[in-house]
Amino acid sequence: MSAVIPSKCWLNTVLLSDKFGRPITDLRISITDRCNYKCIYCRTGNEGALYGDLPFADYLRMARLLVGLGIRKVRITGGEPLLRKGVVDFVGELAKLRNSDGELLDIAITTNGHLLAEMAQPLKDAGLRRVTVSMDAVDPDRFARITRVSNGFDNVLAGIRASRRVGLWPVKVNCVLMRGFNEDQIIPFGMFAREEGVIVRFIEFMPLEEDRVWAPETVVTLDEILLRISEYRPLVEIPHERSETARRYRFDDGIGEIGIIAPVSHPFCGHCSRIRITSDGKIRTCLFSVWDHDLHELMRRGASDGELIEFIRGVVARKEERHHIGEPDFVPASRTMVHIGG
Ligand code: SAM
Q1: What's the chain's Rg over C-alpha atoms?
Q2: Residue 119: exposed, middle, or buried by beta-carbon count in 10 A (0-12, 13-18, 19+)?
Q3: Which secondary-structure segment (H or E) carries 92?
Q4: What is the three-class DSSP state of 54?
Q5: How much distance in Å is there from the Cα of 42 to the middle of ligand 1?
Q6: 176, 245, 278, 336: residue to mutate for ligand 1 pocket, most atoms within 8 A of CB
Q7: Which regions of the chain are under pLDDT 50?
Q8: pTM surpassing 0.85?
Q9: What residues contact residue 232 under an 8 Å CB cut-off, 6+ apart?
Q10: Residue of 50, 174, 218 to mutate, ligand 1, most atoms within 8 A of C-beta
Q11: Cα–Cα distance between 149 and 232 in angstroms, integer?
Q12: How much distance in Å is there from the Cα of 305 to the middle of ligand 1?
């Protein structure tokens, strides 16, 4: 096996990578584990926030250190990140940071879109580049059944349109497919991508939900999605970056893009470049980690930047090689998606 040579940046800092030589360039920060939706593939109807959140200054210190170590993209997530007062100012502070090449960061948010219509412009003005909105049906009644919220559909649609209007680009729409609930929405979503000028991304359902209803049969796979949507119009694959989670396709007439994120049927762990910080300040190196690493506790005890960096490097080096979904030795993650930050 050849030795892994660590990359360095212009300041001669050794950039973050794990023991398999994967560079870590993508950070997701959850700023709350509260959510105002109860999507059936994610939350139960009952459980609320379990872990709470931190002052923005603490996330910012973590982000600053990680950006100095090679992070180039920061995605703010939750729970529902737009529930948190101060999120716009937080984006503004992140937008002042420079990556290890001295460039501005690529800052994105994943949101259910419920509060987005009014926040799109302030977020854009603060330095947000792009947005991903979760929307699992284009039919309002189905949307209400999946989210277990009766008045959400119009808000989410307005949020998507406002994002386009203010110039957040690209606007991506994430749709988790769950057999028996919304696989009949695949073709309508293809039409939606073309009509609304957004990138619709279908996501395979993963065993990260609070209700523990996942089974292999509940997953609508990449092959099945492709087959269904091709009945509507032929697709042409677009080349994608190795570390990109989605396979990308354009319709044959050039109008409309869709993506498929297939962690179950076509895992992409070999090119994973992500780490996560949970709302309570723990580092997670994989969605399916069975433990997390308490960066915030170290900060609380007064650790210096140098000590935090040493801790981060040690944790990242031990990033899991891959997930084991569907295998006999699969152990459920120690947290569900809403408490990790997707
Ligand atoms: N509240 C925000 C939202 O709705 O986008 C951000 C948090 S949510 C946990 C982040 C993403 O995770 C969403 O796109 C959601 O659809 C996805 N997600 C949640 N549970 C999932 C599961 N069990 N399998 C696949 N994706 C899931």
Answers
A1: 19
A2: buried
A3: helix 87-94
A4: coil
A5: 7
A6: 176
A7: 1-3
A8: yes
A9: 187, 190, 191
A10: 174
A11: 30
A12: 32
Pairing mode of beta strands 171-177, 130-134 = parallel
Pick the residue whose CA is nearest to atom 10 on ligand 1: 342
**Distance in Å, CA 68 to ligand 1 centroid:** 28
- Cα–Cα dist 275/75, whole Å: 11
pLDDT of residue 5: 60
SS3 282: strand
Hey, which residues does 200 pair with through a beta bridge? Answer: 173, 258
- Looking at domain 26-340, its CATH architecture is Alpha-Beta Barrel (3.20)
Q: Could you please report the per-residue DSSP string of 33-87?
A: S--S---TTT--SS---SS----HHHHHHHHHHHHHTT--EEEEESS-GGGSTTH
- Token digits for 89? 């100012």
* DSSP state letter for 206: -
Q: How far is CA 213 from CA 42, 229, 245, 325, in A?
A: 10, 26, 24, 14
Q: Which amino acid is at 154?
A: D
Residue ranges per structural domain of the chain: 26-340
Atom of ligand 1 nearest to the CA of 338: 9
**pLDDT attached to residue 243:** 76
Distance 278 CA to ligand 1 centre (A): 14
Complete DSSP assignment for 4-42: PPPPB-TT-PBPPB-TT--B--EEEEE--S--S---TTT
- The H-assigned helical ranges of 174-264 are 186-196, 222-232
**230 in Cβ contact with 220 (< 8 Å):** no
Q: Are strands 257-261 and 246-251 parallel, antiparallel or unpaired?
A: antiparallel
Q: Does the C-beta of 128 come closer than 6 Å to ligand 1?
A: no
Q: What is the pLDDT of residues 128-152, one digit of tens each?
A: 999 999 999 999 999 999 999 999 9
Mutation to probe ligand 1, out of 110, 213, 284, 338 (largest number of atoms < 8 A from CB): 110
Sign, CA torsion 269/274/277/279: negative
- How confident is the model at residue 48, as a pLDDT? 77
